[in-house]
Amino acid sequence: MAEEIGFPLIIKAAAGGGGIGMQVVNDDDDFESALNLCQGRALSAFGDGRVFIEKFIEGAQHIEFQVLSDGKKAIHFGERFCSIQRRHQKIIEEGPWLSDDVRKEIGEIVVKGAKLVGYEGLATFEFLRDREGNFYFLEVNPRVQVEHTVTEMIAGVRSCSIRNKNCCR
């Protein structure tokens, strides 16, 4: 599977978070030892040794969109630029950062995603953007994240106080 994905790739703990159990692998010679290392870290940190692998995007920017949905309608509050990190932990999050056209395009995608699955509540859609400007879906966190205060300041809304109301009219 590693050869199918291609190098460089990244191994991640399936039950993990916060960058724990992640390892970038640049070639096949290092894959087996990195896999064993990540499985051991995942088991130790999360009680679950399962891992998955993804293509590693060198120099990628980390961008998040917070979405509020009532299960039928959804809105987004724009993006947070999360690329300033240390050891896979975000240090500074800023926004707005994208061009209006790109914000509109990605915003429509995250709203559509929330509506398609009938999601209710706050969620954060995360993406990586490569040097050519291509976006790659990373994950959805279906919860209020610590960083929601950044979005609230930017958008001028109190997302936690309105998440249970029908605010998507």
Automatic annotation (TrEMBL):
GO terms for molecular function: ATP binding; metal ion binding. Keywords: ATP-binding, Nucleotide-binding. It holds the Pfam family CPSase_L_D2. Transmembrane segments: none annotated. The keyword Nucleotide-binding applies. PROSITE patterns: ATP_GRASP, CPSASE_1, CPSASE_2. Residues 2-168 form the ATP-grasp domain. This is ATP-grasp domain-containing protein. It comes from uncultured Poseidoniia archaeon.
